[in-house]
Here is the input.
Amino acid sequence: MKITIITTCYNRVATVRGAIESVLSQDYPDIEYIVVDGASTDGSLNIIDEYRGRLSEVISEPDHGMYEAINKGVRLATGDVIGLLHSDDMLYATDTVSKVAARIKETGADFLYGNGLFVNAENTDKVTRNWIGGDYRLWKVRHGWLPLHPTCYIRRDVMMRRGLYNETYKIAADSDLLFRYLLGGELSVAYLNEYIVRMRMGGMSTDNNKRRQMWHEDIRMYRSHGMNPTITKIEKMLWKIPQFIKAL
Here is the structure.
């Protein structure tokens, strides 16, 4: 089973090397690794070029945001299963992809997710949120719960059939895609009770403009799925409380 991993990057000179090396150090033998750069101007592309001979595909051209870049990578992918690793993040261990593949083979799942750690941007050993995915239940999705997006590995044929990321969203496209895939209950979903990714905390919580945009996009996204936006937004926040408690 070939697994495609896609990393998108724009001006992440300080972190992209760690992301790339965490993929290249995997012990799983059949990884297609695609890096999509948005024409970075800070030296990120110079770092990517150091690894070009070990990467399956590199694109560097202007785009209109992360989700357009991800969609480019998905359309190029030839793997049976597709996962994402953002340029600020790292796969948790060298056997992470092997564990993902083994669980998909064991369960025959269309969609797999796991656990993730949010870490301090400067000190990646300091955990700020401990996201334990927990067992999948359709009722949880219908009450605002979603798996952590960067832990999700999805069969390529499912993505081609269900549609890619809605680029009219700049922040909520990942939640929109997950709800589109999971709300109906038709897919076979498996939970891997292992850490998959270590994610650096970004500036979203301290950027008031982005917080407002996220609120408005979430409301629009929930309505598009026939959900009560206010109730679902509150439910989504309640699901997050245990993550902070577990990180203490």
